[in-house]
Design a protein that fits this description.
- The protein is an alpha+beta fold and about 750 residues long.
- It folds into three domains: about 5-245, no CATH class; about 385-580, no CATH class; about 640-753, no CATH class.
- It has 16 helices and 29 strands.
- The longest helix has 29 residues, at about 200-225.
- The chain starts with 5 loop residues before the first strand and ends in a 6-residue tail after the last strand.
Amino acid sequence: MSDSEHYVLGPSIADREWLIKPLSLDPIVFEIIRNKFQAINEEQALSLKEVSVSPIVAGAGDFNNALFTADGRLASMGPQVVFHSGAMPLILKHVMADFADEEINDGDMFIVNDPYKGAVHHPDVTIMAPIFFEEKLVAWTGVTAHQVDMGGMSVGSVSVRAKEKQQEGLMMPPLRLIEKGKMRKDVWRMIMNMTRQPQMVGLDLKGFIASNVVARDRLTELMSQYGTETILTAMEELIRYSERKTREHLLTLPDGEARTRGYLDHDGTENKVYKTDVKIIKQGDRLTIDMSDSSPQASGYINCAEGCLIGAILGGVAPLLGSGIPWNQGILNSIEVIAAKGLICNAQAPAATGAATIGQGWVITLTTAHAISKLLALSDKSRKHSQGVTHGTMAALFTGDTNQHGEPFGNQLIDAQIGGGGANPFADGLDQAGCFVSPRPHIPNIEYNEMHSPMLFLYRAFFPDTGGDGEHRGGRAAGTAWTPHGVERLRCSLTSHGVEVPISYGQFGAYPGVCSNAMIIHDSDVAQKYAESDLPLKLEDVDKPIDLQALGGEVQILAAKQDELPLKPGDIVQYTWQGGGGYGDPLEREISEVIRDIDMGYISAQRAEEIYGVFAGESSEVIQEQREGMRKQRLLNAEDPIAKAENMDTGERRTVSRFGAGLLLRQRPEGTLQFECECGCVFCKADENWKEHVAFHSLSKDELPNGIRLHETMELVEYLCPDCGRRHALDVKEKGIQPLQDLKISRWAETTL
């Protein structure tokens, strides 16, 4: 990969005949082989998990495996973490480039974890293996998984203090770990020497080797059965099929731009906010994702390099745009990424990248998905895939030291994978939704964590009033609390975000999910309360899930990034993470659904009154009057539009599409497209910024729903129809800047390839 700021992930296909030519295999044979590839990926995963004892790999499923063509293109991937699959083609290119002058042999395997050689971040280790058949290199296979420890300044190897890559732990460029089927013991000893968990990491890496051997054996068995040419042709046809289906999908969407800005709080040293700007330019059957307006790289460990950048983009695009399409190089072939070196999303060495996945990479995925959802909302066919943000943060809690068995241990709690799901135009978000980058989310059982780690869990639970409020409500946030048990001390650090800036964005007037929150209660009497079966757990308030006064002790509120600190018996760690974003104006939610939410404990009666205008026991007529009053009050609080609507036609026109729940695209007889409210108020032409033509209001601290906090440099602004008061957008933005033009239509297209 060059230092160019343009990452063309696949060729721009000028010859459409290549895409639409007939399948060069018998369709039944193709389907059999395609499913065989998936079966290989599944068996790879099972082989890895059978060998691994890691709570991250075996318990949380933080890994993925894949098959590649001989020249390094992604042909078939497992259903685990998409980050890894998107980055592995870059890792493989570096392997082939670094060993271009050396012979690659049958039986070789190469290990990599340097982010500047394609790795997502250095705890994510990859082993790549060439596959030979009849003495010819025919394919590659690979496995990537997060490791509990790769050295460095902090347990878990993600150090808040790191300022450069050399401080973060062992980082391997492509190294030949296995040569002609034999382990290179010198390389193995080097790796085991650097990790605090040699037994656990060693078993994981042996699981990698087993997984690659399974893939090699199964693929060569297929070649023996069907012939090499048939199997390699099936790989090419599978990639071509995914590319064709992706481009067909793109052609059903209008040409133009969709844009979202995401924000990452705290760089490990300063509580600054960093911007991730994603502008999606859709032209015909191709996407350009321009991130040029993102913040420069940080001095701390929150940056990401090219592997994480591309993996994060695939994580944001594939689940939405690629729904129903096999995920492989074909999806990537339709994308070009613009991200200059030196940005936070494409850092230059030796910038620290330890928190890449759970920091900048996570924000890239969510921001990309939010922008893609805006495009999808314009299509009657694709609108069902448009949604608020799912699982806005990955709050990674690292612990280590000596466990209750007297053994060295390390662990990363990945409970945050049960974050709230984003709502869509037809349904509320799920409470336990997983995340965009992990289609099959897993978290270890409480008992597994307690068996491996010296922890006593007090609860793992969902909380009311935490999903993004909207016409459709986001899934609730979850959280957990635990205390050290059976040891004199633990070492603990936290890497999170979204503490002072929401990132679980809603869509089209809905609120974001609540912010992340973490605290330590020092010197509590939890052990005595527990022994007396008198532990007070009160979950109705997300900021105070435990009755702190009843437990005693001193409360320490944690920042988004917490350096390693000691814990002792009696200390309680409690942390929660973000709910899912909502969809549509909350005042449009069905009254019966709000009443049901109260009855089910999803929202409080106070929330129903303040956000939804629903008072329990009142008639629907009274509630509708209350809601109408709330809309009028919005306009009384709001400022007039920045720009005046000019030459807007209110005569004959037809509805072309909806942009969100109540914002319409309508077309005049001569062809001009314009934005309008469903009430009939005309805003502006479709290539203008509609937000400048509506009323707007920056919510004060007192107006923010409980659980949503904002950094001093940020604000939450609502954009309202100046006639009826309907809310069409609710944006997290920097103070003092113009509203973001989130949609610009240049051409309406309803064609197919």
